[in-house]
Specification:
7% strand; 423 residues; DNA recombination protein RmuC; two-stranded antiparallel sheet; five-stranded mixed beta sheet
Length: 423
């Protein structure tokens, strides 16, 4: 069930990511399209201005033509003869003037046309670049969409496989022996993950005979001070498994409520037996191990007072996560117990070492006293030798002049042994 939830969550996150990416890509595409429309608008404005300038130039040419016609009519009216004489000259002058004006207007129109082309050229180039970028974005979007489709397809295939495996697991767990074995395996993995050692920190399936029959807890965790905790992994799960198989919403709710009742009845059964009193020493409390977080959350959702009820019965509900925390706390207690034992041993060794050092120091004091007495006796003997024997012996020195040996001087010892210093 947890695998299905994880895969479904992955699919949901992938689809959300695709929609977010598509929205972001759509926003960028919309921005480029807006920029292209703006450039087109600017190009249209420039084209309109160019047409207006061309129209104005044409109008000026028309005005010049009308002016020439007016000049001809006026001169004809003044004098036909004068006009006849000067007509050709005037027409030539008018043609020259008109030609200059026409050339000027034409040059001005070409300059305006060139300016407009210089203005429109970069805009046209920008439009082409925008179109290229839009095409690239479209290709990237199509590639991303196809990649996402492939991922979704793979996820759906994985979900189908997981669904099949889950159905197989649910079918297998319908058998009580298989369900019990699976719970024991999950419990063992949890204990090993917590770093506990079998037959040192805990024992498995230790049986005890009572008046009502033989009790067989799945695990007994040893605590410092000779205490222990009993762990039971035989919680009923058939109602929850039937809820997984059902597709009817009302039936699912009924099965989940029955699952909560089964857990409560199991707590009551363990509490009513009070089988921890059959062990020596009595356990502190009993732990019902649920091999998955989903079993615990489903029961607690249907029966929010389940934890309080279990506490009143000295029965605790534990998932793999909470059981690991409990076992690590027990292991920490064992470490503290070991540290306390080592501290006691160190204290005993220190006391023994102090007593031995005291005895050895007393021996050194006795030796010092004996050495001091020996020095005093030596000095006393030297003084007696000097005053009573050597004084008379030195009188023979004058009579034994040929002797190579001289009578040595005897010196007293001044050093005395150092006494040990006390505190």
């Amino acid at each position: 069930m947890e695998w299905i939830l994880a895969v479904s969550l992955g699919i949901l996150l992938g689809v959300i990511g695709w929609f977010v990416g598509r929205a972001s890509m759509g926003t960028r595409l919309e921005s480029l399209r807006s920029e292209r429309d703006d450039v087109k608008s600017r190009l249209a404005d420039a084209e309109i201005r160019r047409e207006m300038e061309a129209r104005a130039s044409a109008e000026r040419l028309d005005e010049l033509k009308e002016l020439r016609e007016k000049f001809e009519t006026t001169f004809k009216a003044l004098s036909a003869d004068a006009l006849q004489r000067n007509n050709q000259q005037f027409l030539d002058l008018a043609k020259q003037t008109f030609g200059r004006l026409q050339e000027g207007a034409k040059g001005d129109l070409e300059k305006r046309q060139q300016a407009i082309n210089e203005l429109v050229g970069p805009i046209k180039k920008s439009l082409e670049q925008v179109d290229e970028k839009i095409q690239l974005i479209e290709k990237a979007r199509e590639g991303a969409y196809s990649g996402l489709q492939e991922q979704v397809r793979n996820l759906l295939e994985s979900q189908g496989k997981l669904q099949t495996e889950t159905n197989n697991l649910v079918f297998a767990l319908k058998t009580p022996s298989v369900r019990g074995r699976w719970g024991e395996m999950q419990l063992k993995r949890t204990v090993e993950f917590a770093g506990m050692i079998e037959n040192v920190d805990f024992v498995q399936q230790e049986s005890t005979d009572t008046e009502t029959g033989r009790l067989r807890p799945d695990l007994i965790v040893k605590l410092p001070g000779g205490k222990n905790i009993v762990v039971d992994a035989k919680a009923p799960l058939d109602a929850y498994l039937q809820a997984l198989e059902s597709k009817d919403g009302d039936e699912i709710v009924r099965q989940l409520k029955r699952h909560a009742r089964q857990i409560r009845d199991h707590i009551k059964a363990l509490g009513s037996k009070q089988y921890w009193r059959q062990f020596d020493p009595s356990p502190e409390f009993v732990v019902i191990f649920l091999p998955g977080e989903a079993f615990f959350s489903a029961a607690l959702e249907q029966d929010p007072d389940l934890l309080q009820y279990g506490t009143s019965e000295n029965v605790l509900l534990a998932t793999p996560t909470t059981l690991i925390a409990l076992l690590k706390a027990a292991a920490y207690g064992w470490r503290q117990e070991a540290i306390a034992d080592e501290a006691k041993q160190i204290s005993a060794l220190g006391r023994e070492l102090y007593e031995r050092l005291t005895t050895q120091t007393e021996h050194y004091v006795d030796v010092g006293k004996a050495l001091k007495r020996a020095v005093d006796s030596y000095n006393k003997s030297i003084r007696s030798m000097e005053t009573r024997v050597l004084v008379t012996a030195r009188k023979f020195e004058s009579l034994a002049e040929d002797s190579k040996k001289k009578l040595p001087e005897l010196e007293q010892l001044e050093d005395t042994p150092i006494e040990p210093e006390g505190d």
